[in-house]
Amino acid sequence: MDNSENRKGRERSLKILNTLQDLIANFAIVTAYLFLVNQVILRKQHKNLPSSYQLKLQVGFMAGILGIILMVFTVKMNGTYVDFRQIAIILAAMFGGIIPAVLSGLIIGGVRLLAFGEVTTPTIVAAANTLVIAMMLGMIGRSSMSFWSKWTWSLLVCSVMTSAVFVINTGYNGMMTSAVYITMMALGGVFTAYLNEFLIKAKAQFEKIEREATVDYLTGLNNHRTFDERYQSLLQSATEKNECLSIALVDIDFFKRVNDQYGHGNGDLVLKQLGEILMKTTRSFDTVSRNGGEEFSVIMYDTPHKHSLQIAERLRHAVSRHRFRLNDGRTIPLTVSIGVATYPDTERELLLDDADKALYAAKLGGRNTVCSNQTSQI
Predict the structure, then answer these.
(1) pTM to 2 decimal places
(2) Is residue 100 a contact partner of residue 62, using CB atoms and an 8 Å limit?
(3) Which are the catalytic amino acids?
């Protein structure tokens, strides 16, 4: 008697252990998929949303493969075999809406119908249910609901629809299967949702740190670090290809007066507006940076000295015509001084210093002017 009870106890413990192992295996598979999608397929996408049909198809295909793998690694609970295949469809819907969700549903439903046993009425019903769920989840995924609301509704749809299929296919016995399935989907769904949210937030934080390391926080232009990297790279390229590289250093005239008279808040507002003017006035392939304080720079690749002076004069003129807005609605006029130097007219080692000397000459010459390192001013 005791041996029989011990044996039954060991069998129950073994069943629980096997179930836990199956659950852990499924969670590991889902975790690997989330890292793959976030860090490989959507690594350059803002907020993890695919921006093209090609990426949406990739997400849908990968979710379909995930669903197939999850069908292989079924979980046995209370004598019933269930799986996480619909978690894959939820993820596809969350990442890209209807297109990935339907594609993953077609893949999972097709493989379930053709590769997992004979084609019978229950398997046809199950495959059709998968496709219907995929369309419903796709609509939920593209809605404006909050992240957790989408997950809650998605899990509810999967639970209701699939439980109905269990009852249709197996009658009263499907009630127990439905209870097991709902329990498992609740566990797996919450785990996957939490992990997905964590990865999205981590990616957003990493992008923020990466952006702050390369972009000036105030103007949105390249910061000094990015300027230096870009300058060295373009200078090396110009040397190897025997092409021109011009640089214009731009400095706001009497900027200290702006801070002293109107406050640093208005000074920051002026800097932001100047950054916008520089971006609008320069060419799309020019490198515009805020080097620090009120000093900006424009790197002009493959631009001869005469042409770079014309661009600098256009910048100066655009600033002198602009009325800079203050926080209280008033506007003030400002001017800039600009110094320009060009490689190979100037030795590469002296290029930045000579541009700085030209800027100094523009300041001494009365400001609101453009100076070349080759002549006094244009």
Answers:
(1) 0.60
(2) no
(3) 294
